[in-house]
Design brief:
9 helices, homodimer, 45% helix, 4-stranded parallel beta sheet, 8% strand, 4 strands, 205 residues, globular, Dna Topoisomerase Vi A Subunit, Chain: A, domain 2, Helicase, Ruva Protein, domain 3, alpha/beta
């Protein structure tokens, strides 16, 4: 149904373009914004515009960063011979929170997805290959999602990186720590059986 | 965890002020906006700002409207002696979709909620009382949500409107059409038993 206000209509249309937000939720968000102070809404609108217009990226790992070289890349105590390839900044945060990785990152900015028209050239793949080309990197860890798109991207990168003579590894897939077997999907469970390890190796950490 | 970019930080903070959007979802939305064309994001940001800065309201029913008097209030075939009081434009749309109401509306713009610091003066109550004061209105239908806040608001309006000598009614509460009894909460079911009607009256519609 067309609304009685084209301004409301447009705001709802725009809010509904956000992932996971339908028109019903968009209307709720628009009415919430309408009830706020004018200055508050201007701040909201400006924060979104400025994010897109003024955001900067680390010249080494391509992560979003205020500085020309991000904190992680600039940190002299990080191991520079190992690079972990991830999709976006959320993955960097998630891996940093584990405190299990001391190397550097490379942020692709997405994964290959022909359905969405995203090919290798739309991602920071050239930058990754150029980084490896400079030498000094021994291992690249592929840490992409275990989805069709993630796997496609890993396959593509593996072929390119292999040609450069660097070791390519992939993060382990298997059952979650604390997970019951009957809760795990059969593909994951099957993979975790095929990829089984000697008991001593599995428990020593 | 603080992010590597204050721009991203601010955008996530702002997006997380939206109702039902946590920081995790806000981050997903921010990254989605970042991947879009610059012009697309400007359009998004402008639609939100303009909604708050340029929105206009119907001078009669207080609904959001591009025209000084909204389409419903300006329609000569609507019954002008009956006014349905609702919380916001969503309720107007919902009731219009039923095609069961031919009168006019009055949009409060919220409900009384002391917890959120919203009193009668923050709503369009004065405008409602002024409308009734002009005469010609025989019945006011209270169609607010069946919540504590909705009931408080209905009680407040009932007292004010009663003093003006207008008939005040309230939309029916009971079990949903198509609903099974064992799915209904006990308060609603109890109320629907207390408010039972003669069989002939219930089925004649």
């Amino acid at each position: 149904m067309a609304l009685s206000s084209s301004l409301l209509d447009q705001a709802v249309d725009q809010l509904a373009t956000l992932p996971g937000i339908g028109r019903r939720t968009a209307m709720r968000l628009a009415l919430d914004l309408l009830r706020r102070e004018r200055q508050e809404v201007v701040r909201f609108s400006e924060a979104v515009r400025k994010l897109r217009e003024e955001v900067r990226y680390c010249s080494e790992c391509c992560n979003i960063s205020d500085r020309p070289v991000c904190e992680i890349c600039a940190n002299p105590s990080r191991e520079r011979s190992i690079i972990c390839v991830v999709e976006d900044i959320r993955d960097v945060i998630a891996i940093e929170n584990t405190r299990q990785f001391k190397g550097l990152y490379h942020v692709l900015g997405g994964v290959i997805s022909p359905m969405d028209g995203i090919g290798p050239d739309d991602l920071n793949t050239k930058e990754l290959l150029a980084r490896i080309g400079q030498g000094g990197v021994k291992e690249v860890v592929l840490a992409l999602g275990a989805t069709l798109e993630g796997d496609t991207t890993s396959f593509f990168l593996h072929r390119k990186l292999d040609a450069l003579g660097v070791t390519v590894s992939m993060i382990a897939r298997g059952i979650s720590i604390g997970g019951d077997l009957d809760q795990v999907d059969e593909v994951t469970l099957g993979r975790s059986i095929a990829d089984r390890k000697p008991y001593e190796q599995s428990v020593k950490r």
